[in-house]
Amino acid sequence: MKNSRLLAVILGAGLLPVTCDVHAVTNLFTGVTIYEYPDNIRGRLAMLLASTEGDKAPCDIITFDLKSKALRKVASAPQFGIFTVSDDGKIFCVRDNEYELHEPKAFLYSDRMHSSRTVTLPKGPQCDALVGDSAFFLIEWTNGSRIVQVDIETGRQRFIRMPGTNVWEQEDFADIWGLPASNILHFGYRAYRNPRSDDRNRLSGIFSYSVTTEVIEAVSGLSIKPNDEIAANGRYIFFDGPDAPVAGLRLISSRVSHTDIEDADARTRRDVKLVKRFVQRRLHQYWLLGLSPDRKYAFVQEHEAVRGHSAMWVYSYYAVDVSTGKSWTLLKDEYELRTGRRMYQCVYWVGDQ
User: Fold this and answer.
1) Which residue in 41, 25, 48 sits closest to 348, CA to CA?
2) pTM, rounded to two decimals
3) Which one of 7, 9, 133, 314 is at 20 to 30 Å from 206 when CA atoms are compared?
4) Cα–Cα distance measured from residue 220 to residue 69, given in angstroms and rounded to the nearest whole number
5) Side-chain half-sphere of 219: how many Cα atoms within 13 Å?
6) Half-sphere exposure of 56 (CA within 13 A, CB side)
7) What is the SS3 assignment for 346?
8) Domains delineated in the chain
9) pLDDT by residue (tens digit) across 289-346?
10) What residues are paired with 216 via a beta bridge?
11) What is the pLDDT of residue 72?
């Protein structure tokens, strides 16, 4: 693994699971290690690293290209916070992580426009989604919740308003997510005139919002829901068990989603396949972060609590072939342990540049 911008080869600290292939390793930064992987694994890893110590430290958005092995500083954000990236790796957001903060800020960067802006939000968001050249934030509001859209180019903010919104006493938006490679936002919605309203005075369901046309439409028979990960072979990938679908030890493949598997017929249930069983160890957790851009690999994060360091974790990231179960260690994050500075606890695997 040769790259003039990468540092000297080091050896891992002996904390790697024996269940994943580990080969040559390279230190991207102090405490951040990249491992050797097959040539057909492509895309970029996006991460957020604080440049100084402290919860409100300035930070850098960094990407590592898995094909060219090039390390790139995308942008600098004024303050460390909750980090999200669009599926195509073109939009980045760093927002305040204090939910009840007065006048919370969000830093937005568009790689398409090579521009950034910092905006002040009406309230602290519960979650966000990046679709097209807009950022969407779900916030609590009087009599329910609302979605705020921020146009990254202009900075304009607007509420997503449902048709007939003046009729309802309470409106609740939920589960905002974007469809990959589209300008469509999906969200859950529920409204009623009063808590005891009958069905004629209620409205609920899944709706879509087009960033391009600003048209809202009801969605029926939606095949992709929040937390659904559908591989290139058309099968759903998820963890089973009490923390399904996002965490567990048994990563499985199914013809139906985790929400539908209990109601599936016997033939469909028999078709469930074990992709990989992770080793159960004390103070370790496994989380499914998503799929690779080509949807052939599951992207799994291991949390390892650091003994003797309160509330500190080491994170390892694995690529798991969803067809064969073969897995590789891609990256290990010991940044905070080694430097005292923070690295956001989720690395994103996004599309090619």
Assistant:
1) 48
2) 0.87
3) 133
4) 42
5) 18
6) 4
7) coil
8) 1-54+224-353 (no CATH), 81-222 (2.130.10.10)
9) 999 999 999 999 999 999 888 789 999 999 999 999 999 999 999 999 999 999 999 9
10) 209
11) 95
